[in-house]
Amino acid sequence: MTHLQARGVVKAYGPTPALRGVTLDVAEGEIVAVSGPSGCGKSTLLHCLAGILRPDVGEVSWRGDRIDTWSESARSRLRRTEFGVLFQFGQLVAELTAAENVALPLLLAGTGRRAARTAAVNWLDRFGVAELADVRPGEMSGGQQQRCATARALVTEPRVLFADEPTGALDTLTGEQVLTQLVRLAREQRTTVVLVTHEPRVAAYADREVVLRDGMVDHTGLGFEASLGGGVR
Amino acid sequence: MLLGLLGAGSKHGYELKRAHDERLPRSRPLAYGQVYATLGRLLRDGLVTATGQDRDAGPERTTYALTDDGRAALDQWLGSVEPPMPHVTGALFTKVVVALLDADVDRAQAYLIAQRRAHTERLRELTAVKTAARATLDDIVAADYAIAHLDADLRWLHTTLSRVADWHREVHS
Ligand SMILES: Nc1ncnc2c1ncn2[C@@H]1O[C@H](COP(=O)(O)OP(=O)(O)OP(=O)(O)O)[C@@H](O)[C@H]1O
Ligand SMILES: [Mg+2]
After folding, report:
1. Mutate to test the pocket of ligand 1, among A9, A19, A43 (most ligand atoms within 8 A of CB)
2. Most CB within 10 Å of its CB: which of A29, A163, A221, B135?
3. For residues B28 and A37, what is the distance between their CA atoms, to the nearest angstrom?
4. CA A136 / ligand 1 centre spacing (Å)
5. What pLDDT, in 10s, does the model give residues B111-168?
6. What sequence ranges are listed for the domain ABC transporter (chain A) (predicted)?
7. Which residues contact A53 (CB under 8 A, 6 or more apart)?
């Protein structure tokens, strides 16, 4: 059974084609980078895979089930339980503190308030921002917000993490720290990661790189086996 | 490099020097002695041949052209990927210029793609070295240095591939 799969996915925004037939298989525990120039359709593909957008044509399957035909509520339940999503823009709820933001997905999934708060602070700590637990996003730096958003995306221990430019606004060192931690946690928990980035050095954290160009797969970098077998020392 | 310049058409020694200095302004200007020494070596190895002489404009001028062996040697050089180390940029740039000079877009693209693959692979290796639990500060700092350079090369490779593709599309439509 395939883990996560897109088959011939086509998606347009009105007259603007964003994806023109993308096929992609992601194995369980694999970290895949999706890269390519601005506007090539990376975010759109991520949103289709995560069940946020529905393709116009084509299929998206999760563990053998076609989720593109599911209702909105079924897909949003999937996103709350099995998937974690880290968006490119506008991540945190401005009115809530860091801990409340991170606890939110757990509360939505029915976890009790205290347990959710404990888990949230624990996850903030893993990204080195536990001291910001009671601070609101408006009083944090971009990098601190990014760490909180990453903690929030992982707090439910999702099977798949979708991350759209997770280091976009960060300096090299901060970006690297967030990324290293994210990859380490993903490997520990065998979380599958779909990582959107336009930076080669960020894509290099992945097992495999899929490069999009004009809404199509331009080429694929090293395969999972190849990168485990030969390249990486 | 001289083979590449001859690939675009036969030339005199002087024209070769000029073409080199114009195309690759960042490398050191060629000395005439160097041009003729190299041509001598290429003649001896049968990679170039003297195709004609003209004397009317002062000093004697011999025109040189690529032989089939010379073409094969050029193809082999252009086809081989450079080891992706920080200092590779010069050779990488030279190959792309030479391939484009030959108006051989497929060749340039094939080389760029192969080189991008080699760079990407190396970048991934270095990233693994750096993120390994046992990495020392030395390892990390050294990897950082190489990664920064490879990253710059890779951006240039991506951009150049897009430019070559756009240019190719324009010319052929
Ligand atoms: N909500 C929208 N409405 C209309 N067009 C859109 C919308 N979102 C994206 N597009 C268009 O779809 C195409 C793909 O956009 P997408 O956001 O997937 O690109 P991207 O690869 O993520 O780019 P970037 O690197 O800039 O984030 C672009 O041409 C874009 O202009
Ligand atoms: Mg995007």
Report:
1. A43
2. A163
3. 35
4. 29
5. 888 888 889 889 999 998 888 888 888 888 888 888 998 998 888 888 888 888 777 7
6. 4-232
7. A11, A44, A47
Which residue has its alpha carbon closest to ligand 1 atom 30?
A39
Token readout for B111 is 């080389």
pTM of this structure: 0.79
Residue in B113, B129, B155 nearest the CB of A233: B129
CA distance A193 to A202: 13
**Four-point Cα dihedral A206, A175, A139, A120, nearest 10:** 40
Q: Residue B99 corresponds to which amino acid? A: A
User: CA B83 to CA B167: how far, in whole Å?
Assistant: 28
What is the residue-wise DSSP string for B50-115? EEEEE-SSSS-EEEEEE-HHHHHHHHHHHHSPPP--GGGHHHHHHHHHHHHHTT-HHHHHHHHHHH
CA–CA gap between residue A195 and residue A41 (Å, rounded): 13
Which of A183, A201, A219 is opposite residue B151, by nearest beta carbon? A201
Report domain extents, chain B: 1-74, 80-173
* Cβ-Cβ contacts under 8 Å, B126 against chain A: 204
Identify the residues whose C-beta falls under 6 Å from ligand 1: A 13, 16, 18, 38-44, 88, 198
The CATH label, of 3.40.50.2000, 1.20.58.220, 3.40.50.300, 3.40.50.880, for the domain at A2-82+158-227 is: 3.40.50.300
Contact partners, residue A1, CB within 8 Å, separation at least 6: A63, A64
Scanning B128-147 for CB atoms below 8 A from A yields: 128-129, 131, 147
Taking only the tens place, the pLDDT of each residue in A98-128 is: 999 999 999 988 899 999 999 999 999 998 8
Q: How many CB atoms are located within 10 Å of the residue A138 CB?
A: 9
Residues in B closer than 8 angstroms to A205, CB to CB, are 127, 131
Question: How far does Cα A158 stand from its chain's mean position?
Answer: 10
For residue range A30-59, what is the model confidence (pLDDT) as tens digits? 999 999 888 999 999 999 999 999 999 999
- Domain limits, CATH 3.40.50.300, in chain A: 2-82+158-227
Task: Give residue for tokens 């730096």.
Answer: A141
